[in-house]
Amino acid sequence: MMIKPRVKLRDIADYTGNSISTVSAALNGTGRISPEKARQIKQAADELGFKPNLAAQLLKNSEVDILGLVISDDLAKLTGHGVYSELQENFISECRAENIRTQFELNRSGGVPAMFSDGIAKGVIHAGIIHPALLDWLKNHPDYPFVAIEEPWQYCVRTDFISGVYKAVQYLAATGHRSIALFCGPPEYDITIQILEGFKRGCRDFGLEFNPQLLHHHGRAIKLVHNEECAAFVHKVFSGKNRPDAIISTGQGFSSVALYELPRMGFRVPEDVSLIGSCASWEAERLHPGLSSIERNTNQLTTAAIKILKQLTRGIEPEISRLLIPAEMVARKTTAPRF
Fold first, then answer.
1. pTM of the entire structure?
2. Bond preceding residue 270 cis, omega within 30 of 0
3. Largest CB tally within 10 Å, which of 284, 317, 318, 338?
4. How far apart are CA 122 and CA 169, in angstroms?
5. Is 145 helix (H, G, I), strand (E, B) or coil?
6. SS3 288
7. Helix, strand, coil percent values for the chain (each to nearest 5)
């Protein structure tokens, strides 16, 4: 007796001329699918003899939502990273409080994460770089509920680093600083673009000179190589004639290196040089002395992203599709007046 091959979502998609994600959304009652299209897809599935697998059946019959979190970055950045550590914790905590199940995937390959095609999660919150493969997949599956964190997208929640860095420059200018160096990420990153814009605006508005020689875009290296690049910048800037009296940097890593290297060169923090890093509060507070910082509100980021994603999975168009949450400047022990 011949056993007929099992009908898959791909077969229904080819039969109806829809994408796999549209078929999955119609069969599971998720996403922004019109009732008529959902009816047609379900009818086609019956005609083809489609039998959902156990996981899909449990999902369909469950009253509990399943939302996914995908982080596209290196494994070394997953733990001890200001954004990712807090994001994971907040995502799990908030979903549990609302009786929502969660899926998590670390995408290190740069390809399309498996979560997007396994049909379990009703939608995904994504943090990290949206790589070309995922970008193409999303363009081909416009109905899939997807919310980006800290990356521009149709539905996204981001930190307003322009205002955050602007506040930092304002604070430094008001406390008598006249020359500020900036150590930031690769120029193509959205966060770097924001930081540089806020820095230039602040220098212009508060009468400070923007000196390109005091600007450095670090590479994508991590750990030892990144630390060496941080140290090299410190030595280059403070061995020259145009020495800054303050440094603003992205991440807590540069500040850790600067706190070690500057005293070795005869410069005291904060008496001679003020330091402000863009990082989480727990990262800033674990340094000695406590690091003055530009901080994103990860709680608000997570809450807003989950709210938007839940609306998308229920076919509701969010009132605000692109949300900017202000960053705050927090003064601690690495900044001091120059009066």
1. 0.79
2. yes
3. 284
4. 42
5. coil
6. coil
7. 45, 15, 40
